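Milestone 3.1: sequence recovery, worked example.
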C-alpha cells in the first residue's frame, strides 16, 4: 500500500525554511511538489497536484482540499508577537508585499502600524488563520488567475469567521499533526523530526532565510519586541490573542509528546 504524502504546512516567518531542509530530506526532486506559494500551486496542472510524495509551502489547510489522500502533517509554530514582528519586517523590506506601501506611508513605525486597523487586521492571529481557515483553493482555481497569496486569502476570510470556531479548528488540526515543532526549541524539534523521518543528521540544522539587520542597532532580524514600548507590546499581544492560545496548545502538545 502506498505511503501517504508528507505535508509540511509552513506558517510564514516561523523559521520553517530551516526546518524544511530536514523535513524534505531523502525525497527525489520528482517526488516533491515544486510549488511553495498558493499562486504557484494553482498554476500547476490540476491533475498533477495530487501526485507528489512531499509538499512544503504556504498553503495553509487549503491544500488538503486538493488532495485525494490524507497527508501526514508537520507544522512549526513561533511565539506570536515575535512572528508578527518578523512578518512586519518582511513587508517593510519587500516592495512586492501587500503591506509595503502602507507601512512606508507610516514611516516604517511599527507601533503606528499596529494602531492602523487595516494593517493590524492583516497581521493579527496569522498562525490560527493558517491552521483554522479552510480556504477553498478548488474554487479559487476555478475562478482563474491572478491568485492571491495565503496572507491575503486568510485576512479576507477572517473578516467573516467566528474567532472561537477558527481557534477550535486550528487546535483540532494541530492535534492531528504527526510532528509539531517550535521555533524557540528548534534543536529539539529538529531532533524529533529527524527521528520520525529515520534520518541521521551530520551537523546542526542550517539557519536559512534569516532577515536583514535591524536598521536602528544592527541586530539581526530588523525590528523586534525590544523596539516596542510597553503599550505597544500590549497592543501586539492583544492582536494575537488567538495565536497565543494556539501557541500555548502547541507547547502543551510538544511537552506531552516528548
Amino acid at each position: 500500500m502506498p505511503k501517504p504524502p508528507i505535508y509540511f504546512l509552513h506558517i510564514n516567518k516561523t523559521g520553517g525554511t530551516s526546518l524544511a531542509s530536514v523535513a524534505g530530506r531523502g525525497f527525489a526532486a520528482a517526488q516533491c511538489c515544486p510549488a511553495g506559494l498558493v499562486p504557484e500551486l494553482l498554476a500547476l496542472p490540476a491533475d498533477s497536484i495530487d501526485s507528489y510524495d512531499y509538499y512544503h509551502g504556504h498553503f495553509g489547510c487549503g491544500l488538503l482540499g486538493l488532495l485525494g489522500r490524507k497527508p501526514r502533517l508537520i507544522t512549526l509554530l513561533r511565539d506570536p508577537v515575535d512572528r508578527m514582528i518578523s512578518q512586519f519586517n518582511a513587508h517593510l523590506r519587500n516592495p512586492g508585499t501587500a503591506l509595503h506601501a502602507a507601512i512606508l506611508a507610516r514611516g516604517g513605525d511599527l507601533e503606528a502600524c499596529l494602531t492602523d486597523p487595516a494593517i493590524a487586521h492583516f497581521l493579527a492571529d496569522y498562525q490560527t488563520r493558517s491552521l483554522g481557515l479552510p480556504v477553498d483553493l478548488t474554487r479559487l482555481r476555478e475562478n482563474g488567475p491572478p491568485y492571491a497569496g495565503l496572507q491575503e486569502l486568510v485576512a479576507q476570510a477572517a473578516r467573516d469567521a467566528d474567532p472561537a470556531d477558527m481557534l477550535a479548528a486550528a487546535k483540532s488540526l494541530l492535534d492531528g499533526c504527526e510532528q509539531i515543532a517550535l521555533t524557540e526549541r528548534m534543536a529539539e524539534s529538529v531532533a524529533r523530526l529527524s527521528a520520525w523521518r529515520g534520518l541521521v543528521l551530520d551537523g546542526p540544522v542550517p539557519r536559512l532565510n534569516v532577515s536583514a539587520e535591524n536598521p536602528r542597532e544592527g541586530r539581526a532580524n530588523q525590528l523586534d519586541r525590544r523596539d516596542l514600548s510597553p503599550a505597544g507590546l500590549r497592543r501586539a499581544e492583544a492582536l494575537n490573542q488567538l495565536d497565543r492560545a494556539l501557541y500555548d496548545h502547541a507547547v502543551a502538545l510538544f511537552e506531552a509528546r516528548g
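The chain is about 45% helix and 5% strand. The chain has one domain: 6-256.
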